[in-house]
Design a protein that fits this description.
188 residues, alpha+beta, five-stranded antiparallel sheet, four-stranded mixed sheet, 9 strands
Amino acid sequence: MAPQYQVRADHDADTIVVYQAYAPAIADAALRAGRFVTPFSFHRMTWIKPSFLWLMHRSNWARKPGQERVLAVRMTRQGWEEALSRAVLTTADPAAVTGAAVHVQWDPERSLRGAALNHYSIQVGIGRDLIRAFTDDWIVGLTDLTPQVRKAAALTRTGHAARAQRLIPAERPYPLPQELANLLSPGV
């Protein structure tokens, strides 16, 4: 049984993969440039999610308007941990949340079919003050997962969940430094 609050992600020694869903114009421009460029907004918070299935729930498997394209964003672990070190839980004092460079919230993790599970997935909102660091310094690669998403969704809808599951990126516990784990844990 998974701990109630644990970061699970696709990661290696140097990088972590987070997911985002965008309108085609934003995704296409980013993929052409190899990084986020206009029409991506550098003036509002952007939310990154290391849970693929949580993003599938949020974007309705890339069918929600404005979220038709799913990108895997590979970023440095150094950048990820820098963002987390500046985070405030969205359940904190409203004044602290308003002034925070990064917001963190925990939402129920999702199953392949979208059911809420009994453990939580982290969502990280990168604020305006850090967006350029995120887009220009921390990201090391972008991959369009939209065809894979559509195939997995179709397999799930037609009763082939085991085949769909093989298309889901593998995620395992991310080794957060203890001070970050303490900062991000609700109720600590």
